[in-house]
DNA sequence: AACGCGTGGAA
DNA sequence: TTTCCAAGCGT
């Protein structure tokens, strides 16, 4: 698809660019719950949840509301136990985020008397808060002038300025942050940052964007928006098999608590050697993706007394009336629901 | 700098 | 079905 070329660059007349973007957002900006508050704690919760996670997931499945009901303030979150914290995060993925959020809450209590700092440096010093999230808290909660560059902003800027350099590489990152800073509306940082992100979400979408109704189309230099942004090649997906055992005894099932690393602290079906389980009946099979793997999860019916039924490190017997309350990854939960 | 970390929605 | 990848961060 060919689109018209820009008549001017955003940096030729930043005020005109800000006005066009701001005018559009004032009229069409969406009403998210985190835009109804200036509480830096609530803003931070939303931003951490939204890291690499779609708005529809966070909002539609109630994660944000539920989290703030259970942990309404910094002190409550700081005191949260792993179990309830993870349970609130179950299904959202990147579970390390939840623990880092709690560690940030602790640090805010200890270092800042319970009040979030309104400065970049102390925010960046908090665990789980990087450059984007710090800028988001500063601009969205405090309405302070701080640029942000996320996937949306990177895509919008790459297209506006027709930059085909890989956006993950160092030099392009530097340029993106500098450009976001130059364009930032210092009179309205909250609205401006919200607007440029939302433009990326609504009009300047990945793939084929909607340039015809774009409020800043006259500033956009690219002729081929679908080709931008350029990203580094990602690692190939690897197919792997995972063989698990459904092991029961009177009113109980054997589950395995994950140790350090992936999905730490969550409960899964016990994984065993394929050679031990493959002779046993296959009860269920489903696929799920995790990081760069495409996993085929097999569930075998394993009688007590079978060598694979011997308890391993982290395994525990759980009541059949109680397993559902545990923190379990979605794939394992679905498999358990299918076979029990 | 490149990789690990989850999940599900959309094309 | 496959592929892409979303309001990133830490190492």
Automatic annotation (TrEMBL):
It comes from the Bacteria. Pfam families: HHH, HhH-GPD. InterPro entries: DNA_glycosylase, Endonuclease-III-like_CS2, HhH-GPD_domain, HhH_base_excis_C, HhH_motif, MIG/MutY, NUDIX_hydrolase-like_dom_sf. It is an enzyme of class 3 (hydrolase). Keywords: DNA damage, DNA repair, Glycosidase, Hydrolase, Iron, Iron-sulfur, Metal-binding. Its EC number is 3.2.2.31. Its cofactor is [4Fe-4S] cluster. It catalyses: Hydrolyzes free adenine bases from 7,8-dihydro-8-oxoguanine:adenine mismatched double-stranded DNA, leaving an apurinic site. The keyword DNA damage applies. Residues 49-202 form the HhH-GPD domain. Adenine glycosylase active on G-A mispairs. MutY also corrects error-prone DNA synthesis past GO lesions which are due to the oxidatively damaged form of guanine: 7,8-dihydro-8-oxoguanine (8-oxo-dGTP). Belongs to the Nth/MutY family. This is Adenine DNA glycosylase. It comes from Luteolibacter arcticus. The lineage of its organism: Bacteria, Pseudomonadati, Verrucomicrobiota, Verrucomicrobiia, Verrucomicrobiales.
């Amino acid at each position: 698809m060919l689109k018209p070329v820009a008549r001017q660059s955003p940096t030729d007349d930043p005020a005109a660019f800000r006005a066009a973007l701001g005018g559009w957002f004032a009229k069409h900006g969406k009403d998210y719950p985190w835009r109804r508050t200036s509480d830096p704690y609530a803003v931070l919760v939303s931003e951490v949840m939204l890291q690499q996670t779609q708005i529809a997931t966070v909002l539609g499945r109630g994660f944000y509301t539920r989290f703030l009901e259970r942990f309404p303030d910094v002190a409550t979150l700081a005191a949260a136990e792993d179990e309830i914290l993870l349970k609130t995060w179950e299904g959202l993925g990147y579970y390390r985020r939840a623990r880092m959020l709690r560690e940030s809450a602790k640090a805010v209590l200890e270092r800042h008397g319970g009040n979030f700092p309104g400065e970049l440096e102390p925010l960046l010093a908090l665990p789980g808060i990087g450059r984007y999230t710090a800028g988001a808290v500063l601009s969205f909660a405090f309405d302070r002038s701080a640029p942000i560059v996320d996937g949306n902003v990177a895509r919008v800027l790459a297209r506006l300025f027709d930059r085909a350099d890989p956006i993950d590489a160092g030099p392009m990152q530097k340029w993106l942050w500098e450009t976001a800073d130059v364009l930032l509306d210092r009179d309205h940082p909250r609205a401006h940052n919200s607007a440029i992100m939302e433009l990326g979400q609504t009009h300047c979408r990945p793939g084929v964007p909607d340039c015809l109704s774009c409020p800043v189309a006259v500033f956009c230099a690219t002729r081929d928006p679908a080709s931008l942004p350029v990203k580094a090649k990602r690692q190939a997906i690897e197919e792997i098999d995972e063989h698990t055992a459904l092991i029961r005894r009177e009113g109980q099932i054997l589950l395995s608590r994950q140790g350090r690393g992936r999905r730490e602290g969550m409960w899964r079906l016990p994984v065993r050697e394929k050679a031990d389980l493959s002779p046993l009946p296959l009860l269920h099979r489903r696929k799920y993706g995790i990081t760069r793997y495409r996993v085929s999860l097999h569930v075998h019916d394993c009688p007590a007394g079978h060598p694979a039924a011997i308890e391993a490190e982290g395994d525990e017997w759980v009541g059949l009336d109680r397993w559902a309350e545990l923190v379990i990854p979605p794939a394992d939960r679905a498999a358990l629901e299918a076979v029990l």
